[in-house]
Design a protein that fits this description.
A hairpin with a 2-residue loop joins strand 2 and strand 3 (116-119). By secondary structure, the protein is mainly alpha-helical. 48% of the residues lie in helices and 4% in strands. Helix 2 packs across helix 5, helix 7 packs antiparallel against helix 8 and helix 8 (178-193) crosses helix 10 (216-230). The longest helix is centred in the N-terminal third of the chain and has 18 residues, at 2-19. Strands 1-3-2 form a three-stranded mixed sheet.
Length: 231
């Protein structure tokens, strides 16, 4: 949010002063929407990447130089794009290309509500609105809320259940050991899936302070695979 505020404000003013002209540099503010699940999220990613094709600027979304499309599935890490997240979603560059190229929709399936637009089905939208209405306090810390606080558990509950399952406090994990790293991986999966936290929120907890932000995607993927195997 801070980045877009700076982009719309300070950069917009700088651009207008340098290049003259009238009017807004950016027509509208950025949009924030609740997305039902991974299947809808894949659709959104493909839809956004395919914007230049629908606009008639290029025939292939990979040919648009201002897109993030060519940053995925390379050996170089991007400083501004969370490439690990999209790579985790699609698995391979071929999957990304085939899905995006074959996505033939003119508009995303959005439902307008009083709390904003939701991308998903009617049943999910009804549940999201019910959960939204149950929120008790608008002022809570990161440990007790998330921006997308519609269908997730409170963070305190996730930490409590982690302690109950593994019989150890998260802050007492010895992450220099293989066992400690395994349990931290489990906690990462819980925080992402049960609490709905993003990587840049998860890394603020002390237990993850020695992990690079761009490495959390790979850590999550490995932990998730191991947990499914152990079931």
């Amino acid at each position: 949010m801070y980045f877009f505020r700076q982009l719309n404000g300070q950069f917009g003013s700088y651009y207008r002063q340098k290049n003259k002209g009238r009017g807004y540099v950016f027509q509208d503010r950025y949009k924030s929407m609740l997305i039902q699940d991974d299947s809808y999220l894949l659709m959104v990613i493909g839809y956004v990447l395919n914007n230049p094709v629908r606009a008639g600027l290029v025939n292939n979304f990979l040919n648009y130089k201002w897109s993030s499309a060519n940053l995925y599935f390379t050996k170089e890490l991007s400083e501004i794009v969370d490439v690990s997240f999209v790579e985790e979603m699609f698995g391979t560059s071929l999957n990304l290309f085939n899905f995006t190229s074959s996505l033939n929709i003119k508009e995303l399936p959005t439902i307008q509500t009083r709390m904003g637009k939701i991308i998903g089905g009617k049943e999910f939208t009804i549940k999201a609105i019910e959960n939204f209405n149950r929120r008790k306090s608008p002022k809570r810390s990161l440990e007790s809320k998330r921006i997308d606080d519609f269908d997730f558990d409170p963070v305190e509950k996730v930490f409590y259940e982690f302690k109950k399952i593994h019989n150890i406090e998260a802050d007492n994990l010895d992450t220099t050991t293989y066992y400690g790293k395994r349990l931290r991986g489990n906690l990462l999966v819980y925080l992402k899936e049960k609490a709905g936290l993003k990587y840049n929120e998860i890394i603020k907890f002390a237990i993850f302070s020695d992990i690079k932000l761009h490495s959390l995607g790979r850590t999550y993927k490995d932990a998730k695979k191991r947990m499914l195997k152990d079931k």
